[in-house]
Structures are given as structure tokens and as C-alpha cells.
Amino acid sequence: MGGLWALMAQKPPLLLRALPPRPPRSSRRRRATHSAMARRRGSKGPNPDLSRTLTDCTRRGDAAAAMAAFDDAVSDPDAPTRLAAHQYNQLLHLLATADRSSFPSPAAAARRVFDHMLQAGAPPSEATITSLARVTAASAADEAFQLVATMKEKHGLAPRLRSYSPVLAAFRRAGDASKAYAVEAHMAASGLSPEEPELAALLDVSCTAGDADKVYEYMHKLRQTVDCVGEETAQVLEAWFGSDRAAMAGKAEWDAAEVKHAIVLNGGGSHQLGWLGTGPWTVQRVTAGADGQCGSCKCRLACVDIDMEETQRFADSVAALALERETKANFRRFQEWLEENKEYEAIVDGANIALYQQNFAEGGFSLTQLDAVITELRGRYHGKWPLVILHNKRIAKLMENLSNRHLIETWRANGALYTTPSGSNDDWYWLYAAIKLNCLLVTNDEMRDHIFELLGSSFFPKWKQRHRVKYTFNKGKAVLVMPPPYSSEIQESEVGSWHVPMEEKSGDERVRIWLCIGRTGTCKVPDKVPTTNGVVQEVPPNEASNRVRQSLQEDKAESITGKRKDRE
């Protein structure tokens, strides 16, 4: 044995010398992965030549050449009988967008491609069925609807909104209202809601059918779905309100008190009680003034809030989350206290204001700033005190100063202060109070952190826009930036007129075009400032407020939030 080891030590065997060093296992895996990726990039499926041809045809929009390539591929005995799923989809998409002047029968070709796909056992996707429905809808809308309606049953695929759009467009072109409504019903059963293009189609087909009730229904669905409308939708509305059928729709008499009450319940933007008034409509494209006054009929546009039912649901959801994250006894105690003390016009985020722009050497918790905001609010609301929410840890320190103690005792004596207990997050308290009491909230907090993400409410942005009051200071005096005086969204007035804002890409409200829609003599300047969801609208912002808006933007650019979380 020893002789063998000695021989090997003198000269390694030929086999051992010929083998190169073995690379690490991780390197081998990487090389294998890269080789596989290279093969996939080169092949593009079982028929790489067809893939290259389809890509070229798609680029040129040449459906005829693409179908010729498909026919060659499936008739070649040496080529795979089954194409890749993405090749079928690419071909169907090309057929759906084909120019019919150069390729007059795309539907027949699409059916042939789809039949081959199923026979080859290639699994269709939602995009497959949608492309097939799109190309089929132009000549056979009923067949296209069946494709979409049975997508789930036959292929286990959930339709998307884009699956229904070509079918709805086909029934719109045919003027077949009942089938268009059936498409919407199936859409709803699939858990989908129409957006502006689909609603424009449903409005148009309802106008063609002269169905005033359906037009009214879709006007409100449009109002609930979009803020502003595009040119196509605007033209559909102009056509309807210029029709004889629209002039005949409506009632000559109605209960004005009932209508006003319904507007308040619905958040200020609509009554939803049907067409009011009779006679021809006038439609004009106008602009609105800074105060929300229509440039044509002189009606004052409303600042639309979420409705009362949504407000209650919102308050309940905030309370439920707060009770999960706060000490239940503490928050329930606050809820009970708030039930007995409801007469507030504004809730004040005390820490946000007292810490505003205090990130300098001598800065601290400024009760002077907080008092300035309280003074400004009392001036606006005839001496009425707001409710200030502050964490109790702040109060203990502030009471050590005599002047601070005097302010705090004054606020307490007038019911203007609620101190949140140790271990609590005051955000839950001031947010819940503002929602529950349906009043204003004074804070510069953008409400974007995790607490507000938990709410997940679709109407939270609208609520914030309507209720949040921002602030800054000018020579020690608080200057408040009230919510916008009106909302750029579809509105239905108490006299039956409508105002529909159109899209304005610049975002400049001064140049936004509105459709002012009313019957002759039905709209007049309101005698008083409108009330929205129980909250009186403020007068338009003055020059000082405009300067404040600029100052607040500068503050935001400097990342000065003025808020540290109180939780101890």
C-alpha cells in the first residue's frame, strides 16, 4: 500500500491531470440558469419563426400576413401542431385591431384561431376571450356577449371590465338598450362596476331609446363614479338635454322641503328624487367664479360632502379600529363624553398646531400658537369655543408655567379641552370627533401615515377635502385656509338643474369648463349660503388666504410637518 502512495506522489495519474478544477456548485447552477434563459430567448416558444413573423406583422398591423404565417405553421407536418398560448393571443389581438378595409373578415379568422387553440389543448386566458369578443362584437354582438358571459363557466376565467366594453359598444351602435342593460347586469353579477366609457355607452343607448328614467339613473351612476367628464360624455349629455323626450320628462310640482332634506342627506350634491320641472332644457358651456357661482345661471355650486350614511359608517370604522389599538375603557369613555358634548363647530389637533415650525433651538410646545388658532375660530363662529385635543403628558408640563396654566384653565372652564390618557394616540381622538360631530378639523397633518391607511375608505379623500382646515401664522395671528368653497363634481340642484364639470388637464379651476343644464327660469341666486351635510359653506377665500396657500406649499417643500406623535 505504501508503494502505491509513493508512486502517486511521484507522478499523478493521467486521468487526474486531465480534469480541470471543478467549479463551485453555485456557479454551475448560475450557468445552467443562464443557458436555459438563452434558449428561451432564442426560441420564443415551439415555433420561433412564427413568433418573429407575428411580431413583425403586429408592428406593421398586417393581419393578412399574420394569418398566412399561421396557416403555414399549422399545415407544416414538421412543425409542432400546438402553438404557444402567447402566439395565439398575439394573433387574436392583431385581428381585433385589424383594418377591415385591408382585411374584411377578421371575425371568421379569429374563430378559426381560437378553435385551433382549443383543439391543441392550449389554455385560453382572459385576454384571449376578450380579444375574441372584441373582434366578434363588430359583426355578431350576441355571440361576443356569450363568449364573455360563459368565460367563467367554460374556462374558469373571471371577466374584467375590458371584456364587457366591446360588447356594450356593439349594443350601443345597434341602439339595443335592453341588451346593453343585460351586459351591465352581468357585469354587476361579476363584481364589476362600469366606469366613464361604459356609463357613456349606457347613457347614449338610453337616450336613443328615449328612456328618461334610465338616463336619470345613469346620470347619478356617473356622478358617483367620476368627478369630471370627458368630451365624449359631454356630447352625449348635450344631445339628451336637447331632445324632445328630455323636455317632456319631469314633474311640474314637488315638495321643496323634501328635496332640500334629501340634498342634505346625500352630502349636498344631489337629491336623487327624479327629474324636476318640465319644458325644454338649455345647455351652455361656462366657467365658474372663485366663489363657485355659475357664469351662466348664477347658481352657487355646492361643496359636496359624503352623505350621512357614509359619515356614520366612517365614524363606526374609525371607532372600531381605535378600540382595537387603544385601551378600550379610555376610548369608550371619550365616546360617551362626546355624546354629551356635541355642540362644536371645529376640532383642533392641538399638538400639530403647538409644534408647527418649532424645530429651531428655542422652539418648543407653543401654546401661544394654539391660542391664536382658538381665537381665530371663535371670531368666525360668534364666540363659540372649539374642542382642542391634547395628550395629558403635555398638560402636566405646561401647567408648571403660570401663563400656560391660565390658558389651560380657561379652556377647561369653557369645555374647550379634552386630554387623552397615557398610552393613547391622540390621532384617533381628534379624527373620530371630527367625523362623529360632522364638523371641521384644524390640522396641517396630511393624514397619510399607517393609521389613515388602515381606514382604506374610498370616501376618506373627499371627507378630508371637505372638513380639513389648514393654517399658518402671519405676525402672530392665525390665518385659516378653509375647505374649497365648491366641489368640482357633478351636481344636481334643488330646482332640478345640473352642473357637470369637464376634464381640465391643467388643474386650474378658473378655466375649467362646466355644462350648465337647466330649464328656462328655474335657477336663481340662492338667498343664503348653501348647507352641505349640515355644515355651512364658507365664503370664498380672500387674498390673505391665497397667500397662506402659497406659504403652506413652501412649508410642505421644507418638510415641516409640525407634528410629533403623542403616545406615552
Automatic annotation (TrEMBL):
Pfam families: PPR_long, PRORP. It comes from Panicum virgatum (Blackwell switchgrass). One of its GO terms (biological process) is tRNA 5'-leader removal. This is ribonuclease P. Residues 16-55, 528-568 are annotated as: Disordered. One of its GO terms (molecular function) is ribonuclease P activity. The keyword Nuclease applies. Residues 25-43 have a biased composition (Basic residues). Belongs to the PPR family. P subfamily.
